[in-house]
Automatic annotation (TrEMBL):
Protein name (record): Pantoate--beta-alanine ligase
Subunit structure, as described in the record: Homodimer.
Family statement: Belongs to the pantothenate synthetase family.
Annotated compartments: Cytoplasm
Chemical reaction(s) catalysed: (R)-pantoate + beta-alanine + ATP = (R)-pantothenate + AMP + diphosphate + H(+)
Enzyme category, top tier: ligase
Protein's organism: Eleusine coracana subsp. coracana
Length: 314
């Protein structure tokens, strides 16, 4: 039976788990795409990847949940874009999404608030450290979460790993799909799944770009026209760097310097430019093994990330 074109909206954890178990009992592969909503073609490509990955009958679940615990208090939780009705229309139009899991809240809120201590521990995420009998269990992927986005977003990967583990325990998927646009996130989830023996196959899906090269991202909506034009320097400089690396200029420092210069000249503020091994995310001095160039830069008030994988011919 084909999936209904109108996805079922599920808001309750127990109902979600029961739904998945019923689908599996019917012999379906449960494929899961976690998102924070305000969907674009990048998200819809994850749905296509999920559908293609299921050999037989499939039940595709998309979650829409803006996870507070991955945002530091200084970050943009309050202004994160949303359009639930629009998201549902887009998912219905795919014709393959069977359920949308959109819980109001996934955390146990404590009865008492614990103030931040002198070292800053305590109120360090927008979950505001529930305190008392509230949520206090966190997953850390200790090495992979250091560096890249982990350096400037101190609670980000703790929040992502924890909420993804919670979502996995609720949705109980066979397969889950993550975008390579969030490269470090994808690698961290793969590592968590391996280390904690989740029986879930993780699939990394290719970056979807606008026609002019800008990586699609929900936050792009906050770019002014001018900022958006300037932000094209990210994908352009990454593409130039890849061409240079494949034609013999494989010195990481030189390549990083060129990218920093291009972004700065365009008016961006660089958070980081790093060249790392694809799986370990350890920095490389030369691009002489499968590597990925990762960039985060601010254009106006918007922090954008992008990357490009490089497989050197052997
Ligand atoms: N352009 C893209 N190509 C492929 N996957 C993407 C793209 N944009 C987002 N994704 C993936 O979609 C999933 C949900 O991401 P999310 O809802 O945070 O969207 P986003 O566009 O990345 O938003 P943000 O503006 O927060 O970066 C993640 O696995 C992410 O990697
Ligand atoms: C994986 C995720 C849904 C966890 O909140 C989020 O980080 C995202 O959308 O990439
Ligand atoms: N796409 C990752 C979600 C975030 O930046 O918070």
């Amino acid at each position: 039976m084909a999936a209904p074109s109108e996805p079922e909206v599920i808001r309750d954890k127990a109902a979600m788990r029961a739904w998945s178990r019923r689908r599996r009992a019917e012999g379906k592969t449960v494929a899961f795409v976690p998102t924070m909503g305000f969907l674009h073609e990048g998200h819809l490509s994850l749905v296509s990847t999920a559908a293609a990955a299921c050999a037989g009958p499939a039940a595709i679940v998309v979650s829409i949940y803006v996870n507070p615990s991955q945002f530091a208090p200084t970050e943009d939780l309050a202004t994160y874009p949303s359009d639930f009705a629009g998201d549902l229309r887009k998912l219905a139009a795919t014709g393959v999404v069977a359920a949308v899991f959109s819980p109001p809240d996934l955390y146990f809120r404590g009865s008492a608030r614990r103030p931040a201590d002198a070292s800053g521990n305590g109120a360090i995420s927008c979950l505001d450290e529930a305190g008392g009998d509230g949520h206090e269990t966190w997953i850390r992927v200790e090495q992979l979460e250091k560096g890249l986005c982990g350096s400037s977003r101190p609670v980000f990967f703790r929040g992502v790993a924890t909420v993804v583990a919670k979502l996995f325990n609720i949705v109980e998927p066979d397969i889950a799909v993550f975008g390579k646009k969030d490269y470090q996130q994808w690698r961290i989830i793969c590592r968590m799944v391996r280390d904690l023996d989740f029986a879930i196959e993780i699939i990394g899906s290719e970056i979807v770009r606008e026609a002019d090269g800008l990586a699609m991202s929900s936050r792009n909506v906050h770019l002014s026209c001018g900022e958006r034009q300037k932000a094209l320097s990210i994908s352009r400089s990454l593409a130039n760097a890849k061409t240079a690396a494949l034609s013999g200029n494989n010195h990481s420092q030189q390549i990083k310097d060129q990218i920093v210069q291009a972004l700065t000249e365009a008016g961006g503020r660089v958070d980081y430019v790093e060249i790392v091994e694809q799986e370990s995310l350890v920095p490389v001095e030369r691009i002489d093994r499968p590597s990925v160039i990762c960039v985060a830069a601010w254009f106006g008030k918007v922090r954008l990330i992008d990357n490009i994988e490089i497989q050197v011919p052997s």
